[in-house]
Every structure is written in structure tokens, then in C-alpha cells.
Amino acid sequence: VLVEKDDAFYVMNDRLIQLRSGRLVLPVARKVGKHEGDRDEGLAMLSADAGATWRLSRGTAGIDAPRGLAEPCVAELSDGRVLMMGRTGRGSLYVAVSADGGETWSKPEATTLESACSSLTLKTLPDGRLIVFYNHATPIKAGAFFPRTPLCYAVSGDGGKTWSPPVIVDDEGV
Length: 174
Fold this sequence. Notes:
The protein is mostly beta strands. The protein contains no helices and 13 strands. The strands form three sheets. Strands 1, 2, 3, 4 and 5 form a five-stranded antiparallel sheet that branches. Strands 6-7-8-9 form a four-stranded antiparallel sheet, with no helix packed on it. A hairpin with a 7-residue loop joins strand 4 (40-47) and strand 5.
């Protein structure tokens, strides 16, 4: 059984990656509670047979905070580890790392990327650096989804340990 009857999972767009090993990693969020606004935790659905069968990762990435760790994205680092990044209600994006292909995750840690609990997109650039698109803004209160501007990007050349200053893409919300 892939999931229990009462589990509630969700996946955001364009999140699936294929590791150099061939494993498919689909980051998902699972509701810890049953209602909108409850905490989420990040984990992965994994496939070793090109998507014919799937199973859940053994470990999860969660924080005890408003919203938890939600809408995770993943990227394979140059050393083979997998970085998971997610939105939180703590005022910044958080990251967790897997050294076993997405099977288990380290305790999530805050980044320097200030953000309300709004969506993000993480990708690997052709030169191996990471780029994240997100809303660089101070939340109106703990756990807040707003503000949603400005839309920015930041780049990391060291596997997500440090990030460039945010570059504004759109500050009008259009």
C-alpha cells in the first residue's frame, strides 16, 4: 500500500526530478492535521522502475511551526545528495538534505531567503548552481501566506548553503 486511507498528499507543478542513478523523486507534502492551515511535512514518492511503481520515502522533513514545511521542491546536488526546499510559516524558506536518494531527510534548517508562506520553484542550472524563484517579503504575521510580492530569484553555488541577494523579477504582482 502506497498511502493510508486517510493520508492527504499534494504535489505542486514541475517538481519531479530524475537522479543520476535513474531514481525518480517526486517531492510531496502530507498534511499532519486534517484542515487547511494545519502543519505539513515534506517527503518523497520514489520510483526505481521509470515510474511503473512508486513508494513513499521512509523519512519526512517537518518543523513544528505554523504551516510546517509545505510544497517542497528537490534538486540533486553535485555530490549526489538531494536538497529539499519548502515554504514555512516561520518567515523564511527551509531546506533539508537526503544522503540516500530521497529515502530519509535531515532536520530542516532556515535559509537566509526571507519569505511569507508562499510558493517557490527550485531548479538546477546547466552549470550546477541552484536557482530558486520565490516571494522575498516579510510575512504580515507568523504563518501568513502574504505578501506575494516581490517575485525574486536567488542563486546558490554551494549546494544551498548560501544564497545570493534576491533579484527582483516583478514587484507589482502582475
